[in-house]
Amino acid sequence: MTADNDKTRTRKASIDDVAKAAGVAIKTVSRVLNNEPNVREETRQRVLVAVKRLNYHPSPSARSLASRRSYLIGLVYDNPSGNYTIEVQRGALARCREGKFLLLLHEVTGAGEELTQDVMAFANQTHIDGLILAPPLSESEEIIRALDEHGLPFARIAPNDLKHRSPYSDMDDEGAAREMTEYLIGLGHRRIAFIIGRPGHYASGQRLKGYKAALKSHKIAFNADYVRQGDFLFDSGLEAARQLLALPTRPTAIFAANDDMAAGTLMAAHEMGVAVPDQLSVAGFDDAAISRTVWPPLTTISQPTYQLSYAAADLLLKSLLSGTPPKPVRLLHKLIRRASTGVLRNPD
Amino acid sequence: MTADNDKTRTRKASIDDVAKAAGVAIKTVSRVLNNEPNVREETRQRVLVAVKRLNYHPSPSARSLASRRSYLIGLVYDNPSGNYTIEVQRGALARCREGKFLLLLHEVTGAGEELTQDVMAFANQTHIDGLILAPPLSESEEIIRALDEHGLPFARIAPNDLKHRSPYSDMDDEGAAREMTEYLIGLGHRRIAFIIGRPGHYASGQRLKGYKAALKSHKIAFNADYVRQGDFLFDSGLEAARQLLALPTRPTAIFAANDDMAAGTLMAAHEMGVAVPDQLSVAGFDDAAISRTVWPPLTTISQPTYQLSYAAADLLLKSLLSGTPPKPVRLLHKLIRRASTGVLRNPD
DNA sequence: CTGAAAGCGCTTACAG
DNA sequence: CTGAAAGCGCTTACAG
């Protein structure tokens, strides 16, 4: 039983309590808490002691109401692959935490007008200060137009080439896909198949472009039979690979536009008794967790997903605080060699 | 150019604007928005028309400040397996959205006192109304004590047997593990190994108990060599399985306490050239996404992770609104048979 | 069924 | 360097 163990114990301390305890005006407490200048060091210390003693934590809602800022950032994503999404979440979450903003997740599913309405309803209801758009939402002209009309700042992760003043972070999808294809060519492969990513994703087209460019620069004829449409999900990779491996002259290497589809490709190979990598090399893209838990582990492109998301959040916060849109950020990828690729051993 | 296309366009409408437009007091607007009784239907309609016309969305911070509620729920989790975490997120998110609460995610990493401090700092800074504890945090006596002292309501997902009045959701881990073990016994296996989950998780102990109980009821002697410690992560399953498969008399079946470790077990079998399921049956637990993307697909226990989390959020919201702690909820599991288990074909 | 007043706990704008 | 006043946009408590 302490001296102040009375009924007031349950009520949270407010700025008034702190001001009274420190013998200053609430404005001074506010200055100390927000690191504003013009506070004498001795006064500052007195305030800090009172804050500590009263276990004071400023009310976010009072602060928001008075400052006309919610300190809330929204992260909107569609969810093609859970492996990818969780990294996107982590990156944005980390940056928001550092900046004392809170991150609100909003998973969407629809398309077109309905999707735009969904995003705008989320923004309206939560009164978020800004939004982070993960792909493929980062490419939606319709959403971008609606956000502009609404005057809501946003940052984009891996957007398409649409010109817009809002900040974004991206990587060189085309260059990375080209690099991977050239790596397979370097292993001696000539019959290299490609599984395209989800239609409508800018990255899908870029990766296909890189694949084609590598073939061309090595004078390997493009074979439409070796290119299949997927959607970034495991099942689509499984299905596409089943078809590819059933071709009369089957490919000796399959490059899937992401790791989930590459994992599906491995399963098709297992089903059909095709040895990886002895009879078939398989490559993915992302370096997601799944690339290390399949057999054999996948050769892939390490896409800096966490960093892309962190950077997008960083740019958004900077633009909110400065008012001017910062320059876009381009991050580097890396080819990771694992056991799923190799030179041909038993070509049939 | 509409008639009201002047500078006021950027300012958001407030409750005062709506009241003025509808010719009522703000209290009446508040009644309509919160579905309170005692509003004439005609008045109600007038208000709704004004809300629509002004595109009015109530300010969450003003509402929070006045009502002394943040309408914020925290979800705190440690992250042993990404596959599990994303389902936990989804379940809680879905329920909060329905209840017009916002969900704040907080991933923690530490342990002991530091961990408790981390959780409490999160609660203090955000002023959340309640907290959802995912395992193994749902078992921490220290955190529970701190939350009690703080007077913060919380719900637990799959907690241990600690008696506490706070609501929780769980499943029968012991029964499920027993069922899986008996299924393996039914296939003719006698040398059944078990890989234990992360130490300190209540579920880990319960699943081990179920495994032992099944052996006992079928009069199969318990062999300590066949039981290995894991931590729910892929690598620990890989390592444990490598050891098990290197035993002079190796097991014919391995039951891992979760899917990630079972996936690691499959990789060890691949590495060592042990055919699954012909020479070795492998079973997991969770029915996470990974159970369908490995080769062969895993026989596992479908743990209703999403529903457990949804239920915990549901119980928390109910207890916040009613003030009385609702009854705990127990959810059902299901054994999912896939290709990773079978009768022995080529015992060596 | 409806409303006027007070107040939630901060920041902004201003004064000294 | 410090502070008094006003106000952000709602809900609570009360009155009629």
TrEMBL record, chains A, B:
InterPro entries: HTH_LacI, LacI/GalR-like_sensor, Lambda_DNA-bd_dom_sf, Peripla_BP_I. Keywords: DNA-binding, Transcription, Transcription regulation. Residues 13-67 form the HTH lacI-type domain. SMART domains: HTH_LACI. One of its GO terms (molecular function) is DNA-binding transcription factor activity. Gene3D superfamilies: 3.40.50.2300, lambda repressor-like DNA-binding domains. The keyword Transcription regulation applies. It holds the Pfam family LacI. PANTHER family: LACI-RELATED TRANSCRIPTIONAL REPRESSOR (PTHR30146), LACTOSE OPERON REPRESSOR (PTHR30146:SF153). This is LacI family transcriptional regulator. It comes from Povalibacter uvarum.
